[in-house]
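This is your field. Pick holes in the following sequence-structure pair:
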Amino acid sequence: MSGLHQKKNILIKAVVFSLMILIFGSEGVSQARENHEPASSHLSRAKVYLAAGDYRRAVEACQRNIDENPAVESYVYLIYVYDAIDGYLESLAKQDNWGEVGRLSLSMVNRGTMDLVDPPDMLSRMAKEILQEGLRQQFDVTAGMANRLNKSRSDEMWLERTKWKEAHPENWWAGIPESWKW
């Protein structure tokens, strides 16, 4: 098997694993460790994770918030995190910063200390495309859920998000609309 073929196989496996984490979160971990903290603590952590660029943990925190507080707002918050990751990826691509795209992709498939002895190898441009496709699919699924709960509230929150993006075009993905009070 050629080196390029092996790298593609590893990339595909890493991206599939990444998408599984995005789609299913860390339900096994969540079930093993019952978390009785209020939903707002999940959102507070998600806000810090966004600022730090730790998007995997931001997704997981918003998923835990949905588990504990199933409401249209909770779904819109998760949609926003998906959109923030997509926006950050686009920003990196425009800067031709493929090394950082690779690091983002690696952070999405973090396997803890296992990565120290068996680091995943990923082709950054392919990783960007695959991550964006998964993000956009999850965005659409989650948006549908939010709209079924309360379309007018979902639309209202999305307008707040649009204003936030317009006011912070260079780094909107690193924070949240001020009116959301995470």
In short: The chain has one domain: 3-180. The mean pLDDT is 79.
